[in-house]
Amino acid sequence: MKYYLLLFVSVFQIFAGFALAKDYKFSGSISREVLENYLERSITLMDFANMPKFSTEGDYPRKELDIEFVRDVGAKFVGRAIYRWGGEDALNNPEFFSYAKNLIEKLHLVDEEIIVQGAVFEAVYPTVEKVAIPAWVFVEMSLPVEKRNFSYDKMVFENGLYRNHWGRGGSVPDITRLETRLWFLYLVGSYVKIGVEAIHLGQVKLMGANDPEMGGWADFIKFLRKFADRHARRNKIIFDAHTPDGSMLYKGESLLDFNSFPLRIKEDCLDEPEKMKGILEVGHTDSIYKRSAGCKTPNGWSCDSLPYLVEFDNFGISNHAGKADLNDHFIWGYDEITWLYLQPQEERERWLKYAYEWIKKTDKNGHLQMPATRILTLKKSQRGKITVRSVPPQEGISHTLNLQSCIKRIWESEK
Question: What is the C-alpha separation between 194 and 116, in angstroms, rounded?
């Protein structure tokens, strides 16, 4: 009798496991359930697939630790893995994409269902003029093939808007200009061909200053989706962008599969201000909580509020580091990931759990993207030079959040 009881319990546990297993299957389109399953297991693994010598950010050794991190915590959506923010001429080196392809394949050996995300940002630099336009880009755009390089001047706004917006030479490209579309197709197409299945489009409203009704963006994203039908691993690119007004809509339909935005952490000035504590609050500055707009989605289903991710953003350091200003986007004068890094380990872990639970309780449409790698700015002279990771402290890792086990515990508590 005892043997049969144990057998029954074992069989029940097996079938219960199947019943509880989350669905991550999609092809051509993605259901809301599957999309949110991915967003619930999302991490920022910034710069992962960029070669260290071509990185526009900090030194980033021992990437095998990140692959183990992904396996250990059970991440399914690997965000910001490959992108360019300046240094466009790195793309001339054939090793750039072969290196990235190799790392992405290693992730898919861990779990073939993982989505790897690339990014097409709102910044272009004169070094883009060193990059030759491949023939396939012209062919895809139904244009005569030319033998020439990309033109920086043909991408930026003709009236000078946002020129040098990101410092000397760093300008915002205009999405209504053909050259910008050629450049973005080249990036998106190159990423898709090495296994990327999601694209973050950055600050679309900046690039769309000449496209207030979103018709230009709508045409171009539709074009990119058709490209994905033929080239992506599962015939689908999942698009998101930073949406400060809670949407990227064209005629009531979202151009994005999901929205994304920074956490927008608010200074807690009442409770031991010397400890630089932070809280989340609906309505703080331009936070997205309870503001992600309802729409018809590109996947055929409609919603009252489009699912969204919130992330620990990196955008630099203010001129009031260590001091509160409730009217700006900094938290105690730092960007969000730097603020988290500056917290004691115990508080860092407590706050991550707090944020995860607060979002779940406050807005069922929201999901927290866990920090795996990101860029710190401890002082202005270090901007874009320090990579912080969540792997445990060990040789060769200069800056760590040491949150790998914490993230794993948080996610496992929800199973």
Answer: 10
